Amino acid sequence: MYAFKDIVKNALPHGIVTRVIRSQAVRHRRIAALPLCSGAAVKYSYQDSIEFLCSRGLPRDHVVNGSIPKTSLDFCATHLGSKTLGDKPLIGLHVGNFLGVSLAYFVDFARKINPDSMVASVDPNLTHRGIKNPQEHVVALLNHFELQHNAMISVGYSGTKSVSNDGVAFLDDSGDEYDPFTKHASEQSCENSVRNLSLLSVGRFDFAVMDGNHDAKYLHIETDTARALLVPGGSLILDDVDDSWVDIKAEFGKLGESGWSIAGTDGRVGILTLPR
Asked: Mapping DSSP to helix (H, G, I), strand (E, B) and coil, where does residue 132 land?
């Protein structure tokens, strides 16, 4: 390596070599001077996460209505907090990020248990509720509250490719209709993310949150695959276990009869646990 540098120095004019060395030194000084974080940590709160996303120009109705409400997230936290978790790092899985409201909540909750906790998330990052590239907002939200150190994002479908937006058409930010059926062929992401994750980490996750595809058959495969990820006694949290999604509510009941124990529901989210 040093011989090569000597050859270069001898081959190039002295002035050019000097400028290269100086520019490298300048770069190293500028890199060393960069702050390790964006500034003073902003304390997380659910409402502040909503306001932050709205401040980025996102429609409030989509931010609020497309996210799990705080009362339901608090219900989940109460359940998880009541388990004998100790102070070991929590490992969680979150399927279906949208704008990151519930993801940020669970990351903050897990970090309060132990600063080394981690929540992995899976989302294909497709246009949802007319909002393009939602992952951009997810990452911004995590960084705003200094939660990025405890989150790991995987871009992909939890299972195989599926129809986005649960087949519902929304207007995008330019006022054009985003029809998930006509856009389906052009939508691309990785697939089988939960299965692939189970190949890397069997029986390590303390909880899993499922808030992605709302097709009952798809959800059944998701939950069956996620089972291998969870520790004995681990918790499975399903969103939209209500009368607005009767198939999801029915699937929740079926899971309670097939090896899972129903821990409870608040009318919006349902929680199941694996036997110890």
From this structure: coil
